[in-house]
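Fold description:
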Amino acid sequence: MLNIKPKITLVGAGPGDPDLLTLKAVKALAEANVVLYDALANEEILDYAPKNAIRIFVGKRIGNHAYTQDQINQLIVDNALTYGNVVRLKGGDPFIFGRGGEEIDFAESFGIETIVVPGISSVVAVPASQGISITKRGVSESFWVITGTTSDRKLSSDVALAAQSSATVVILMGMHKLPQIIDLFQKEDKGNLPVAIIQNGTTAEEKVGVGTVDSILNIVKEKDLGSPAIIVLGEVVRESNKLKGFYEEFLSKEISR
């Protein structure tokens, strides 16, 4: 009988572009007996795992969950105990709104060895791919990172606090709450604040919409933007050389109205 040593490696898959996977993540995948991957991990990344590795999709989207979180936790442990080396592949960085901490805690409660391989987070990588530096000297000295939808499906109360600050605000999982988000910024008299929405950032399916707090809802409708997307609110959006063409188009439309 084989002596199976269970091990779980929690791997961040990055923002979407498979070239943004870290070398350490590639090495971890190459040693996997089982890979449990989510909906945000580009499936091309699975090619780094051995051909005989078991691949299990455990992705979650709004209204479409392959497994509950409790079931995922148990699958990770069961597969580690049965097959040995399990890689849990999660989009972005597993500790930023990824529930990676919960999965590690559950695995360690069984005495299983765990390793974490951080990933490049979409929080900074997706805006950067559009030339948006979420901090910039003389423009923004800090930034907020907020989930748009909490575990009880409500808008995070931190959005209202962030709307009062001068910091850049980056919101994940917020497209279904966008009208509420915009309302909070309008109440702070920030109708002219630049906004960028980047859907499927760093991938071939990437779509971008830019405007202001007052105009972004119309932009979203015109460009048919939806989830998954990053919402960036702040003066740094206007600073992006890559987005100047979008803003020139937007401003020309405003003038012509």
